[in-house]
Amino acid sequence: MMTASSAPVRQSSVRAHNLALVLQTVANSADPISRAAVAAATGLTRATVSALVDDLIAGKLLVEVEPAPRSGAGRPAAGLRLAPDGPAGLGLEINVDYRAACVVDLTGRIRHRLVEAGDQRPVGAGSALAALSLLATEARRRAEADGLTVAGAALAVPGLVTGDDTVRIAPNLGWLDVAVGELGGLPVAVDNEANLAALSELGTGELPPSFVYISGEIGIGAGIVLDGALFRGVRGWSGEIGHLAIDPDGPPCRCGARGCLEQYAGQEAMLRAAGAATVADLAAADLSTAGHALGTAIAAVVNLLDVGTVVLGGIYAPLLPRLRDAIGAEIDRRVLTADWSPVQLRAASYGPDAAMRGAAGAVIRGVLDDPAGWLARTRA
Amino acid sequence: MMTASSAPVRQSSVRAHNLALVLQTVANSADPISRAAVAAATGLTRATVSALVDDLIAGKLLVEVEPAPRSGAGRPAAGLRLAPDGPAGLGLEINVDYRAACVVDLTGRIRHRLVEAGDQRPVGAGSALAALSLLATEARRRAEADGLTVAGAALAVPGLVTGDDTVRIAPNLGWLDVAVGELGGLPVAVDNEANLAALSELGTGELPPSFVYISGEIGIGAGIVLDGALFRGVRGWSGEIGHLAIDPDGPPCRCGARGCLEQYAGQEAMLRAAGAATVADLAAADLSTAGHALGTAIAAVVNLLDVGTVVLGGIYAPLLPRLRDAIGAEIDRRVLTADWSPVQLRAASYGPDAAMRGAAGAVIRGVLDDPAGWLARTRA
């Protein structure tokens, strides 16, 4: 079916569209790309491309680099790539046993990374956020010392978020209806940590368009990616895999129910079962109970959603070799279609940094999607 | 962001588009609607609308009806509505303990309904399909005796389907890799029964755009509707809720695992637990075990997908008053967000006919979406 004809397009929105088109063409190119090649890829004239590129360079979104010398004849054209010293994203995370901040530049590189370990539960939301705000200020100061401009901030939390800035509930932090407000002098977009981590894994370009990312921390969350986009659910509260019932008569959970996955495969449950003091000790422990519980939950996800790939992040990523047999056994036993279509289990690329990297990436994504907005803000 | 300009539009596809637009405008109108009102709603000229309407009437897709007499001045215009005696959909279903066929006309009314009770397991796929083919032939004969033209056929099965015509696995029927072929002399599109039932419930227009439909039969399936569209999963195998683990050490299931939902809340398990001989007897039985198991599975679905409405179909629909307390207790206990956003439990509108009605509806949907194709076929 055709759609109804679109509304008339104004000049300013044509420019905004073309700026984004040029910027994303450069961003999607593995190597530096010439203005002529951008023109060819976009269908815009060379003159238009050059004018737009000049604006993007002036706004510190693109840089022009000398090409590698070639042995053939002719002078090779200068190439464009994303600017490493323009806008940056400030990614923040608060989790049960640490708070963290990172600065990610337009090329996706982490430029600064600040992590403070420590139990966030006893201090309460106000103090935890105040301490995180100091960390954010320090990260921002370091970014600016590098000549970067922090374009925005986003915060990853292990809980359910409403309205872009309020943590509705984070059971493992003991937070209820916490409005985050500004951190480090910047307004902050708040999102679930598993959602943001899933987005950072999607950004690697190495995963199929549909997968489920499972973050193992003290809590367990899932980010569901369907057809290349995060699936958030009706109210943005999807992915609460940590509270799937593994055994209805199992041990009590902090959420009030019994036998939730977190009570078998959460970090504290795993440490307790192994008699281990630290996560590092788990690398030598028998993780069979956690693995079977995780496999049962993953089988439920695959039976319901029919995704073929599951990415294990957080503490699960380095432990996957020790968890794989038990998870695989439950998948083989419980997924109706496992015989035809084996489920791929993969360790996350980014480990414990995935969520804050995803938070910073969400800021960067906003700049790449709307460079005209960024240029207007920097001129103001 | 704008999208790239679309390819040139040919005259024939403009006509196809406008035919569908006019037909759907009439279909979406609660009352008969005049040609002038169709023109106003679509933005097409009256002359264009009249020419398209004449074609749709000639093709038996629309009829013109006399308006109800009005007391005011002026002659009221004749109204258009969908033709009740044009194309019809043949909906077929094979389930564990019955096979069935129905004919649904363009207005959505069931015109014929044929159900043969009987255990389909001992007879095997070939015999069951041969018997269903006879039923399909009889339904088609009755439709044609009414002056209807059967536009196509679709089959609902309690299992996983590949490639539109092959049942990959239907554990409760004992079917494995069954190619369906023609039934009643017609090619048949095969789909999962819960998917088709969910589509027929969506078609009532009384549900929010996102919900999960759960069909209770001997097996238990789910149809997941997100933002007004069926979510099928990567390979079309989503919704296998019947094999969610309720208790990992529970009774063995026909699928090979233990403690699946079907072993607590499937029809046979419910009859066994209640010491009942027929489904009708369940109306007076204690359904607590089934209700708690179903509630645990529903809590998992809501925690993962964040849908706010669950529709209970099949044998669950009439039993919902007796199941509601136990289901509700598990939702309250296990769904993290139940305090802010209670989950709505609703009985399905169509009961046991939902799946075959959805199958017939899929055929009707095809005609409404592409009336030009239907007109070309009837001319040929």
Automatic annotation (TrEMBL), chains A, B:
InterPro entries reported in the protein's UniProt record: ATPase_NBD (IPR043129), ROK (IPR000600), WH-like_DNA-bd_sf (IPR036388), WH_DNA-bd_sf (IPR036390)
Gene3D superfamilies, alphabetized: 3.30.420.40, Winged helix-like DNA-binding domain superfamily/Winged helix DNA-binding domain (1.10.10.10)
Gene Ontology molecular function terms on file: kinase activity
Record key words, sorted: Kinase, Transferase
Statement: the UniProt record of this protein carries the keyword ATP-binding: no
Coiled-coil stretches noted in the UniProt entry, renumbered to this chain: none
One Pfam family linked to the record: ROK
Homology family: Belongs to the ROK (NagC/XylR) family.
Protein name listed in UniProt: Putative NBD/HSP70 family sugar kinase
Species of provenance: Pseudosporangium ferrugineum
Taxonomic lineage: Bacteria, Bacillati, Actinomycetota, Actinomycetes, Micromonosporales
